[in-house]
Amino acid sequence: MGAQGCGRDAAVTTAPASNAMEQTSTAAFLLSTRGYVRIPNAVPTLTLETARTQFFEWLHDCFDTAVEEGVHAVSKRYGVHFWHDKGRFRISPKLTGAFADPMLIAHPQVSAVLSALLGSDFYCKYVGSDTCLGTAALQPPHRDVMFYRVNSPSCYVINIALVDCHLDNGPLEVWPNGTQWWGPQPFLNNRVLPFATEGHRPELERLLEACPAEKILLSAGDILLRDPGMLHRGTINRSGEPRPVLTLGVAKRSYDYRYGNIRFNLDETAYAALDERVRAMFTYAFEPSTLFYWRMRWRRLLAGPAPSRFA
Ligand SMILES: O=C(O)CCC(=O)C(=O)O
Question: From the CA of 260, how far away is ligand 1's center (Å)?
């Protein structure tokens, strides 16, 4: 099976898998070195199906809510926050019902791996989703976060496949290896930065021509953990069906970035109703009695206003 990388065939992978709790250290090793690891069949069927049905209702509500590209909006029937650009919809799910299920949002295997790498008090900065449609263009290779100041990742992305992600519906393409591989200097030496998610970056694509890329295939219910510093891109969806994947950004407490606002997903009532394993990831936004709440407020103030779709 060949799939188009930067001018050469990208390998196709189902991603190295970690199955059991006792494999936490192996999964953490793969995530740190290779840049990604897959937890197969992680989400229970009923939770997955309920979440998928709900998600498609939100998606259609967003389709029915006409808004300009790149502008943050709220859908007219369900009130979900979203924006879309170039055939890619970013919906912030409301964390109730199946979307508040710890087996989806705070999966024990995922938490064990992330605790090993980020500390058990890691927090969740955003819960979003990437849905690519048939109109979505091939993205340029990019990283999701700025270069880290230290030589190990300070944050990770959790991708939860709501549908099968196969070669025809726009699977994620990655250039494997974690942050330690993709440091700033080689890019600066070549006067090219890997942050743009749209348009063409021929200089970057040329540099990557000799670097093997992989397209990651996922089954619905698989969870992919990846280093957002690993180069990757969204590909083309030829299936005629939307391809939704949930996307959570989690980080060490010492680290913050501008993207995301958990208030798009939760209000006080929904927060209070959360299972404590899920709630623990969001205390920073709802518990003024904690130091971390004020530290995050302060960081946000210092960072200044972000684009509306980020804020
Ligand atoms: O759609 C995807 O799977 C990934 C998209 C992506 O990497 C991005 O929009 O930054």
Answer: 15
Q: Which of 255, 265, 263, 261 is nearest to 310 (CA)?
A: 261
Do 238 and 3 meet the contact criterion of CB atoms below 8 Å apart? no
DSSP at 106? S
Write out pLDDT tens, residues 115-167.
999 999 999 999 999 999 999 999 999 999 888 877 778 999 999 999 999 99
For β-strands 223-226 and 214-216, DSSP reports them as unpaired
**Single-letter residue type at 96:** T
Do 270 and 95 touch, CB atoms closer than 8 A? yes
Å from CA of 9 to ligand 1 middle: 20
- List the chain domain ranges: 3-303
CB of 132 sitting under 6 A from ligand 1? yes
Pocket test for ligand 1, best of 59, 84, 88 (most atoms within 8 A of CB): 88
CA of 63 to the centre of ligand 1 (A): 19
Beta carbon of 214 within 6 Å of any ligand 1 atom: no
- The alpha helices in 12-107, defined as continuous H runs, are 24-33, 45-64, 102-105
234 lines ligand 1 (CB under 6 A): yes
HSE of 311 in the Cβ direction (CA atoms, 13 Å)?
10
Fold of 3-303: Jelly Rolls (2.60.120)
Q: What is the pLDDT of residues 275-289, one digit of tens each?
A: 999 999 999 999 999
User: Is-contact 155 219, C-beta < 8 A?
Assistant: no
Encode 133-169: b = buried (16+ Cβ within 10 Å), e = exposed. Answer: beebeebbbbbbbebbeeeebbbbbbbbbbbbbeeeb
